[in-house]
Design brief:
- It is built from four helices and 13 strands.
- It is α+β, with helices and mostly antiparallel strands and 254 residues long.
- The chain has a single domain, classed as Sandwich (Immunoglobulin-like).
- Strands 1, 2, 3, 4, 5, 6, 7, 8, 9, 10, 11, 12 and 13 form a 13-stranded mixed beta sheet that branches.
- A hairpin with a 7-residue loop joins strand 11 and strand 12.
- The longest helix has 16 residues.
- It is globular, with a radius of gyration of 17 Å.
C-alpha cells in the first residue's frame, strides 16, 4: 500500500476519477494557493558549476536556499529536513539537494524507473508562457533519475537514453543501490540539467534569461521508512500527488 501511494504521488498513475464537486474544490484550493504562493529567485552562476563537490563547493554560497518543509499528508515518523539550491547559466540549470535522512534506501537502477519509491528528491517546473507542459526531474539518493514532460501526470514523454547521458548527477551515496543502515544520517545530490535536453523531451525552445518567470515545486520522498511526501510550495490535495502544477510556486530568473 505504501508503494502504491508513492507511485501515485510521483509517477502519477491515473487511478482516481474525481467528481464534479471534487473538481470544484480543487479549483477553489488552487485559487487560494496562488495567494499564498512561495517565490524562489534563481541566480546566474558567476563561475563554472562543479557538481561533484556537492555542498562543499563555494559556488552554492550564492544560491538561495529553499526548505522543503511542508508535509500536507503527514501521518507518522520524523519530519526530516531537506533544502534545495538552484543556479543557472547559459546552458543548464543546476540543483543541489541536502537531506537529513535516518533511513537511506534505494533500489531503482534503470533510467526513468520508479525512483520515487526510493529515498528521492524531485524538481518540477514549467514556463507558463509556453503552455501547460511541465518537466519532472526525479532522482534517488544513488543518482539514478527519471525525466518526463507533459501537460498532466497521465501524458508524459520520457527522456531517451542518449540525451539522458548529457544530464550529470553527483551524490554522496557511493553505490548503485542502498539498504537502510543504523549509521544513516543524511545525503546530498547535485544535478546539472542542460536546457537542450529539456528542449528535446518537450519539443520547445528552453532558454531562460534574466527576468524569465517559471512555475515550480520541489519534493522529497522518503523510501521505505518515513515516506515524507514533503513539498516546498503547499499542495492542497486530500492524497499525495506531486503532479499538480496549479500548486507550483514562482521561480524567477535573476
Amino acid at each position: 500500500m505504501k508503494t502504491l501511494a508513492v507511485v501515485l504521488a510521483c509517477v502519477g498513475l491515473a487511478v482516481f476519477s474525481p467528481s464534479f464537486a471534487e473538481e470544484a474544490q480543487k479549483k477553489n484550493e488552487a485559487e487560494q494557493s496562488k495567494k499564498d504562493m512561495k517565490e524562489y529567485t534563481i541566480r546566474k552562476a558567476a563561475q563554472a558549476v562543479d557538481i561533484s563537490k556537492g555542498p562543499q563547493s563555494d559556488v552554492w554560497k550564492k544560491a538561495e536556499a529553499a526548505k522543503i518543509d511542508e508535509f500536507p499528508w503527514y501521518k507518522e515518523g520524523k519530519k526530516q529536513a531537506t533544502t534545495v539550491r538552484l543556479l543557472y547559466d547559459d546552458t543548464a540549470i543546476y540543483a543541489l539537494f541536502v537531506c537529513d535522512d535516518s533511513h537511506i534506501f534505494s533500489k531503482t537502477t534503470e533510467l526513468n524507473g520508479p525512483v520515487c519509491t526510493d529515498s528521492c528528491v524531485e524538481f518540477f517546473a514549467t514556463n507558463p508562457e509556453k503552455g501547460p507542459g511541465y518537466f519532472n526531474f526525479e532522482a534517488n539518493c544513488c543518482g539514478m533519475f527519471h525525466l518526463g514532460w507533459g501537460p498532466d501526470r497521465a501524458k508524459r514523454k520520457l527522456v531517451e537514453p542518449e540525451p539522458a547521458k548529457q544530464i550529470k548527477v553527483a551524490t554522496s551515496v557511493p553505490a548503485a543501490t542502498k539498504e537502510e543502515s543504523a549509521d544513516d544520517n543524511g545525503w546530498w545530490l547535485a544535478a546539472a540539467i542542460p536546457f537542450d535536453v529539456i528542449a528535446q523531451v518537450s519539443g520547445e525552445t528552453v532558454q531562460p534569461k534574466p527576468g524569465t518567470v517559471w512555475r515550480c515545486n520541489f519534493y522529497r520522498c522518503g523510501g521505505k521508512t518515513d515516506q515524507q511526501f514533503a513539498v516546498w510550495n503547499p499542495v492542497a490535495n486530500p492524497y499525495p500527488d506531486f503532479h499538480r502544477p496549479e500548486f507550483f510556486g514562482t521561480l524567477k530568473f535573476e
